Amino acid sequence: MEVILYGALSTVWWISSLSILLPLVILLKFSKTFRSKWFSWIFMNCLGPIFNPKLKPLRKRAFDILKEHLKDRQKDVPLEVLEIGIGGGANLQYYPSNSNLTALDMNESFETYFNETKKKYPQITYKKMVTAMAENMKDIEDSSMDVVVCTFVLCSVQNVQSALSEIKRVLKPGGKFLCLEHVAFPHSQWSYTIQRFVAPLWHLYFDGCFPDRDIAEEIRKKGFTDVVFENVYPNSLTLFVRPQIVGIATK
């Protein structure tokens, strides 16, 4: 029944996008500036307020996993953290103590929102903000980070393997890659067919996001020394992005 409902909603979305929403579609398709500003605004003012409360348990679980893997660290030594796609800073409340944060996002329109959020968490030392794609983090030195945080980002990068190569490059030996992402349903399920059907629209409206990537497999292929993921399907989330992975990989 749910698949039929979402199939109908997806069909209506397609028809609307090719008719009454066509001017918006054209702007999103051909103007990167408009697309970036559109996404940062709609994410912070519409999607964030709706989905962030539902995602809080997943974010907390991710950072609980990180703390488990860092339990033997010397807490008086600052933890060098890079967060990729930091957006408005939704993860800051979960950061370990004594963290030095380098923030990176390809969409500079988020910086204003992030600057407001970081004021609430003065216990974090903010080193710098970098505007760059995850596939080309040339301003971040090799083997300089203890932790790379990446939540709901690999769904949107242009090349997942290139982004993962950069993550491995900037991590210190033994460094941790903390990942929380929405992923594809198993390919045998009708829900995956719905994800595939809506993917072109989702990609356009949400600044390059793909709802149907197998990100866990991409990470496993990258050759991290240890990869541990949990698969969860929160019913509170829309079917399009319901499958989630949360876990950690070690360089």
TrEMBL record:
InterPro entries: Methyltransf_11, SAM-dependent_MTases_sf, Thiol_S-MT. The chain crosses the membrane at residues 12-30. Gene3D superfamilies: Vaccinia Virus protein VP39 (3.40.50.150). Residues 82-179 form the Methyltransferase type domain. Keywords: Membrane, Methyltransferase, Transferase, Transmembrane, Transmembrane helix. The keyword Cell membrane does not apply. One of its GO terms (biological process) is methylation. GO terms for molecular function: S-adenosylmethionine-dependent methyltransferase activity. This is Methyltransferase-like protein 7A.
